[in-house]
C-alpha cells in the first residue's frame, strides 16, 4: 500500500491518496484547495480511482470532494450519519463555521487566507453512504466495494466519524491525533460517545498500526495507548 499525502492550507487538513498494488486508488478527505494536486497525482501516475472517502463530514475534510469526485469520475462515500453535513458546510460547524459571507467567521477567514472563496463550495451530487443513521454503532463495514479496506464507526467528534483500516494503517480523521483526540464541543459532538469510542474502538486496535490522523503528525497505536492522556489506562 502506497500513501500519497496532500495537506490543505485550511486548518492543515490531511488528504491521503491510498494506492493499491493494482494501481487502483482511494482519495480520503479532500480538503480545500487540494483538488488540483490530487487530480494531477492520479493522472501522472496513471492510477485508477474508485472512490472519494470521507472520515467525517466537516468541511475542512470535504471542501474539494465534489471537485475531486467529478474530475476523477468517482462517487463520494461517507457514513450515513454524517451525510447531511455535506449540504450545509458552515451551519454544521456551529460557531466555527459562521456564515459564508461573514468576514469574521473562523472558517471564512481561514478559507480567504488560503486563497479560497468561501462562497464557491459545491455540494457533492454523487454521494453514496454506508452504515446507518441512528441505528446504533456500525462495525467492520466495507465502505468501498471490492477494495481491501475496513471501516469502523467511531462517533464522538461527529455522529458519523469513521476509522479506516487498510494494510498497516489506520486513518483516524479527527477522532485520534498524535498525543490528543478530536474535540467534542461542535454540533453533533458527544463526549460520552467519544469516551466509548476510545474504549471500545481505538483501544482495541492492533498496536502495530500506523496512525494517520486528519491533522498533524503520524503516530502509531502502541505509542498512543502508552502516552496519549486520553487513552492511558483504557
Automatic annotation (TrEMBL):
Residues 12-215 form the Metallo-beta-lactamase domain. Pfam families: Lactamase_B. InterPro entries: MBL_Glyoxalase_II (IPR051453), Metallo-B-lactamas (IPR001279), RibonucZ/Hydroxyglut_hydro (IPR036866). Keywords: Hydrolase, Metal-binding, Zinc. It comes from the Bacteria. GO terms for molecular function: hydrolase activity; metal ion binding. Its cofactor is Zn(2+). This is Hydrolase.
Amino acid at each position: 500500500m502506497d500513501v500519497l499525502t496532500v495537506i490543505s492550507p485550511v486548518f492543515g487538513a490531511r488528504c491521503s491518496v491510498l494506492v493499491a498494488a493494482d494501481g487502483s486508488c482511494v482519495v480520503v478527505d479532500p480538503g480545500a484547495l487540494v483538488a488540483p494536486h490530487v487530480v494531477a497525482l492520479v493522472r501522472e501516475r496513471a492510477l485508477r480511482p474508485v472512490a472519494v472517502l470521507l472520515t467525517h463530514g466537516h468541511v475542512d475534510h470535504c471542501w474539494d470532494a465534489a471537485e475531486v469526485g467529478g474530475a476523477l469520475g468517482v462517487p463520494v462515500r461517507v457514513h450515513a450519519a454524517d451525510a447531511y453535513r455535506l449540504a450545509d458546510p458552515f451551519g454544521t460547524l456551529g460557531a466555527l463555521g459562521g456564515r459564508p459571507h461573514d468576514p469574521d467567521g473562523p472558517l471564512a477567514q481561514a478559507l480567504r487566507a488560503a486563497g479560497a472563496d468561501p462562497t464557491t463550495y459545491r455540494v457533492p451530487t454523487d454521494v453514496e453512504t454506508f452504515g446507518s443513521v441512528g441505528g446504533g454503532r456500525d462495525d467492520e463495514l466495507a465502505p468501498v466495494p471490492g477494495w481491501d479496506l475496513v471501516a469502523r464507526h467511531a462517533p464522538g467528534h461527529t455522529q458519523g466519524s469513521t476509522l479506516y483500516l487498510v494494510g498497516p494503517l489506520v486513518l483516524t480523521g479527527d477522532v485520534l491525533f498524535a498525543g490528543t483526540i478530536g474535540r467534542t464541543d461542535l454540533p453533533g459532538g458527544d463526549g460520552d460517545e467519544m469516551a466509548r469510542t476510545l474504549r471500545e474502538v481505538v483501544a482495541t486496535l492492533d498496536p502495530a498500526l500506523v496512525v494517520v490522523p486528519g491533522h498533524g503528525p503520524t503516530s502509531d497505536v502502541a505509542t498512543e495507548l502508552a502516552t496519549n492522556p486520553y487513552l492511558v489506562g483504557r
